[in-house]
Write a structure and sequence with these properties.
mainly alpha, elongated
Length: 109
């Protein structure tokens, strides 16, 4: 993903065909070391392709992915119930810890 982001930044800056060295320079400016094999693969896949067409094609693919609005409500409600149970358990644990303090042992005794 970082290689693609660097490639797109260079393309937006006017470099229509960023090289490996260009991408390495961008990544090294933010402290990232580039791996040669992956970088070469990204450049090989994107070479000669129109980035605007690739972005438009990717957007249509993302639009077809179901994002599910109603299904998320049930797990959220279950998680809220689970959070209440966890809070009750923490209260019980706290009571047990307080009972340890009443045993007569002090930190500075």
């Amino acid at each position: 993903m970082k290689y693609l982001a660097a490639y797109l930044l260079l393309a937006l800056a006017g470099n229509e065909a960023p090289s490996t060295a260009d991408i390495k320079d961008v990544l090294s400016s933010v402290g990232i070391d580039a791996e040669g094999d992956r970088l070469e693969k990204v450049i090989a896949e994107l070479q000669g392709k129109d980035l605007q067409e690739l972005i438009a094609e990717g957007s249509t693919k993302l639009a077809s992915v179901p994002s599910g609005g109603g299904a998320a409500a049930a797990p959220a409600a279950a998680a809220a119930g689970g959070a209440e149970a966890a809070a009750e358990e923490k209260k019980e644990e706290k009571v047990e810890e307080e009972s340890d303090e009443d045993m007569g042992f002090g930190l500075f005794d």
